[in-house]
Design a protein that fits this description.
Largest interface: A-B, 49 and 49 residues
CATH class of the largest domain in chain A: Mainly Alpha
Radius of gyration of chain A: 19 Å
CATH superfamily of the largest domain in chain A: Tetracycline Repressor, domain 2
Number of domains of chain A: 2
Largest sheet of chain A: none
Strand content of chain A: under 5%
Number of strands of chain A: 0
CATH topology of the largest domain in chain A: Tetracycline Repressor, domain 2
Shape of chain A: elongated
Order of helices and strands of chain A: HHHHHHHHH
CATH architecture of the largest domain in chain A: Orthogonal Bundle
Oligomer: homodimer
Number of helices of chain A: 9
Distance between the termini of chain A: 52 Å
């Protein structure tokens, strides 16, 4: 750790290192069989250090999800703001979601598999952040509907859930099947075509 | 239990009762926190009886999945065989998948949430049955492509994963959100439109 970094940055580094170690351990062993001691060892910190940042193992999983979804939403919102065509925006969102998982297979495994450990967990913690992501997608759909490019009878929320689910399904089969990143990229392009053509208004601009 | 039923049927009844009890308990407590003793109590059988039919808790979860997916595939294949239009076939598959979960919320919860307990589990046990379902969908897509109704550049397998994923995503948000069955039915109709219009060849028959 650089001497020049302040207390705040140093502590953030450690927190981030613990989160990254958790992703690795959860992906390898599954959430229930993972032990905090093993996460500490992987992160290169003392067991007790983890409890300075996180209450327990649940809190680690929640923090991975919340941090990564927030980063993803920030990045998606920034990229989408620079585009005008709603169809192009959807294509970019799809590329970004599948790009993130293709580059971080362990994270993909934690988000598609381990995160669904219990209904209580999903309802209580994951739902608010997850809704932020769905709202971002739904806003693009609504914009396309207002511009007359997307069919108005489709609920933007249902479209957002379908898009998220389709990508999650492709990620899941990719994670289970151990295909290479190129395969997921090709699937992303096909899924984008299906979903965008699926919502495009008949006679709308291409 | 009726006196007239033979040994075979009686034993199948008990097996089925245990499976139904497992679905209830897994949905309520989550897979890891569920105990075989509680499943036995819910099924109205002695703890030891469960081990006459199932090796362990893992085997119960696997059996729920395998039984229900097989039933679903049999029903889907029978229904689809009676239709000629591939788009109509896809719509029927979507209605059936979401119809099953709308009628059996506990089962929906187990299949969308508890089933993803670990990567090992999914790879080793769920993948073969899951592939049977994906193949059924992919065959309909291929038929539509051969008839010139569906766009040929979309991989049938990618479409099948996207369709399954979209429905799984809608089911997940429905299970978490506790909406009524009617809401899921409306979402099913919208998802069908998105996916079918998404694969329909431009200028193809409607």
């Amino acid at each position: 750790m650089a001497k020049a970094t302040g207390e705040r940055t140093r502590s953030n580094d450690k927190r981030e290192r613990i989160l990254q170690a958790s992703v690795k351990v959860f992906a390898r062993k599954g959430f229930y069989l993972s032990r905090v001691a093993e996460i500490a060892k992987t992160a290169g910190v003392a067991d007790g250090t983890i409890y300075l940042y996180f209450k327990n193992k649940d809190h680690l999983l929640i923090s991975i999800f919340e941090d990564r979804i927030d980063e993803m939403c920030d990045a998606v919102e920034a990229q989408v703001a620079g585009l005008t065509d709603p169809a192009e925006k959807l294509r970019r969102i799809i590329d970004m979601q599948l790009g993130l998982v293709a580059e971080h297979r362990d994270l993909a495994e934690v988000l598609t598999i381990n995160l669904r450990q219990s209904t209580r967990f999903l309802k209580q913690f994951a739902a608010p952040k997850f809704n932020r992501y769905l709202d971002t997608i739904a806003a693009v759909v609504q914009e396309g509907q207002e511009k007359g490019l997307f069919r108005k009878e489709i609920s933007p929320r249902v479209f957002a859930c379908s898009l998220f689910g389709a990508l999650d399904g492709l990620t899941l089969t990719w994670v289970i099947g151990r295909g290479d990143a190129g395969r997921l990229e090709k699937a992303a392009a096909a899924a984008a075509t299906i979903l965008i053509e699926g919502i495009r208004a008949r006679g709308g601009a291409r």
